[in-house]
């Protein structure tokens, strides 16, 4: 067992409190807990924290920067984990990400679909891809405009080596997350109409997991509430 100065107890307590929030939100929404996958976002935290989370039963890990994620995933290769890449992704990082990620949440343009497909085929892997939806008009934070999502979903579904899993979004800062996630639910419904297998809705972070569950999220990406506040300037 890993223990670094009570870190395991600290993370265990945080996990229990996140689980209690998830249970309460599921109850309020009339949804079973089994519909929800908790992804622990471990960016800026060491591989030893990933190991603690795994010991506590967490099976899904999220990272947003390849430079950090690649060595961490390698260090944790002995653990039974599913790795989720959740950050903006440059096409020149596709080869590295495909080496460890099972799910890429941030597919937002055709060139990235092409790059991931090429690398997945080359690595003989199947990568589940989520189309990231921009819920605000602020450029630069990643995500496809809602109007462009159906065509992008079609491109993923057609691409060799890729499986269309569904959609992902981050609630815009300063907006009621319930309103933003309601728009995401609409986009998710439209994608499912064309691709019934694309059932994943990745939404909900430490501050808005209840709103996300109320709006149909299937995957939560939780960092701060599990591991503590990160240093500033790192999303
Ligand atoms: C960092 C990050 C999260 C986790 O956010 P918290 O507020 O720390 O829970 C979720 N999604 C994405 C895309 C992130 O970059």
UniProtKB/TrEMBL annotation:
SUPFAM superfamilies: PLP-binding barrel. Residues 16-229 form the Alanine racemase N-terminal domain. The keyword Transmembrane helix does not apply. Its cofactor is pyridoxal 5'-phosphate. Keywords: Pyridoxal phosphate. It holds the Pfam family Ala_racemase_N. The modification N6-(pyridoxal phosphate)lysine is found at residue 43. It comes from the Bacteria. The keyword tRNA-binding does not apply. One of its GO terms (molecular function) is pyridoxal phosphate binding. Pyridoxal 5'-phosphate (PLP)-binding protein, which is involved in PLP homeostasis. HAMAP family: PLP_homeostasis. Belongs to the pyridoxal phosphate-binding protein YggS/PROSC family. This is Pyridoxal phosphate homeostasis protein.
């Amino acid at each position: 067992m890993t223990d670094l100065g009570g870190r395991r107890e600290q993370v265990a307590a945080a996990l229990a409190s996140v689980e209690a929030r998830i249970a309460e939100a599921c109850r309020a929404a009339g949804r079973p807990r089994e519909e929800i996958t908790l992804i622990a976002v471990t960016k800026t935290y060491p591989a030893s924290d990933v190991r603690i989370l795994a010991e506590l039963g967490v099976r899904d890990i999220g990272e947003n920067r390849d430079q950090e994620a690649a060595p961490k995933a390698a260090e944790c290769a002995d653990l039974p984990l599913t790795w989720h890449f959740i950050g903006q992704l440059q096409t020149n990082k596709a080869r590295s990400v495909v080496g460890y990620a099972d799910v890429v949440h941030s597919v937002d343009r055709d060139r990235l679909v092409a790059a991931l497909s090429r690398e997945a085929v080359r690595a003989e892997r199947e990568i589940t891809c989520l189309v990231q939806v921009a819920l605000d008009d602020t450029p630069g934070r990643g995500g496809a405009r809602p109007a462009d999502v159906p065509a992008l979903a079609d491109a993923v579904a057609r691409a060799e080596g890729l499986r269309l899993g569904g959609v992902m979004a981050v609630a815009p800062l300063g907006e009621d997350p319930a309103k933003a996630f309601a728009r995401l639910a609409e986009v998710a419904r439209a994608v499912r109409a064309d691709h019934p297998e694309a059932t994943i809705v990745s939404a909900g972070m430490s501050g808005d997991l209840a709103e996300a569950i109320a709006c149909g999220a299937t995957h939560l990406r939780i960092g701060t509430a599990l591991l503590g506040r990160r240093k500033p300037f790192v999303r």
